[in-house]
Amino acid sequence: MGIELNRRRFLGITASVAGIAAAEGLLSACGGGGGKQAVGANGEALKAALPSYVPSTTLTPDIPSVAGGADVLTDPGFLKYPANRVATVSGIPGRGGRYSAVTPLWGTIPPADNQFYQAMNKALGVTLDMKPADGNNYNTIVPTMTAAKKLPDWIQLPSWWGSSFNLGGLAGTQLADLTPYLAGDKVKKYPNLAALPTGAWRAGAWGDKIYGIPSFSTGFSIAGATFYRRDILEAKGITADQVKSVEDLMNLGKELTDPKAGVWAFDDVYRYLYTHFGAPLKWRVDNGKLVHVFETEEWLEAVDWHYRLAKSGYMHPDALAGDNANAGTRFYSGKTLIGGGGLGTWNLADHQSGVAANPNYRRGAFDIFAADGKSKPVVYMGESARMLSYLNINLKPEQIEELLAVANYLAAPYGSVEYTLVNFGVEGVHHTMENGVPKATEAGQKEVQATTYPFLAAPPSIIQNLGADQITKDYTAWQAANAKALTKPPFWSMNIAMPQAQATADAAQQVEDTLKDCYHGKKTVDDVKAAVASWKSGGGDRLKQWMTENVLDKFGTGQ
Fold first, then answer.
1. What is the pLDDT of residues 459-473, one digit of tens each?
2. Which family does it belong to (predicted)?
3. 8 Å CB contact between 209 and 180
4. Which are the contacts of 379, defined by CB distance < 8 A and separation ≥ 6?
């Protein structure tokens, strides 16, 4: 349980943070300016810098990926752990170097120089001095290192903390340029890195150069979905395909709500529904001019609908009071039947929590639909990777090559010999195989953190819930059904570092606070409009001007 619990904690945390970040925009606002690397360019120079994409054919998934539009690919599904594990790296990648590595860890930090670290160093052919740091304070720990210019040799810098880290300023000053080693077909020297999607490398680009090594990359990155209790709704004869508009959804809320029985249809859904109305994720371009989401009628229509939902009596009182911490408990117990959430929620841990409350528990998600039930359904893509590691600029070329060879080992595909060691440790010491599934021993629970080495490099995301195949089948089927709805927003995967004033306006905290009160029924749509007017005069208009002059006019939209 130790390994799986730690992995699920990580997935829950990152899905939540990444989902919110994707819903609120895709820009890395780096206060203080980012120097010459202030914007991730989008031109021929960057295209030439991007590593070639060569998918891995090492293992055939039980449920293959489905392609959508450009850079859209559903995650493959696995119903079992491979019994015949294949080695994807010949020989030992390292040449005996010694390096320091820092990653965030949401969990108990294992003992230094433990058996797992020793086994990894032996397999990698280097000594990696792993120094996991408290993930809860990571965004304050790293700036101390960068201010002193004392970064480790290898460090994980999640993109959602780009403003804290000033990634745009670090690129090329403290972080190594990997373009000479990975651009184009050069990446083929590292086949497992070549199997990472192109979009994931874009997420680690500044200017026209590659800096970041992706972890947990995916071709299906969206903020989240509107979930429902599939078991309860289907028992009532209600299926997801009956919901084709927000009118259908509101009517369903009326049908499902029974306050006397302690059941309300809805928990919070705003973050995962507002773009269904045709509102942009954050920006759109109309007739060559940049328009912010707050300036659109479609967004105001979404705000109005959610205000009416809050006043309808169909939302749980605790949700209206802003109690998000217990939303999962309400959903599991059947006190709420519909709620928004990040896709990382749809996993084995969720299933186990759900069936503990109700043996029939089954999560489902409504397909992406247009609010009016007539327009083309659209859901906006987030970055293909939000966790990227970086190498220290002071490393010598031969050291960078050695660490890239190590990264290639760490990025070995699911179920391979390398993957098994990286994620589960040594068989017989850190895990045993039970019914074909790796199960942690006591030593494994203490020493193996599946979010340590994979934070330096990891293979593309897959979907697996060993022992609960229905979850994998449901989730992969939902991704496949919605793949064609994924659409790139303007400035997709373009890293942008703003001056502090623009970063503050981009956060739009006053509007966000008023908006939250509105979709909880405490303030009106007029209050939101007033907050937007104040935001525009207090910095919003200057933000739009800065984005127009420094990004749109120079680099286009990234489409």
1. 999 999 988 999 999
2. Belongs to the bacterial solute-binding protein 1 family.
3. no
4. 222, 275, 368, 482, 485, 486, 487
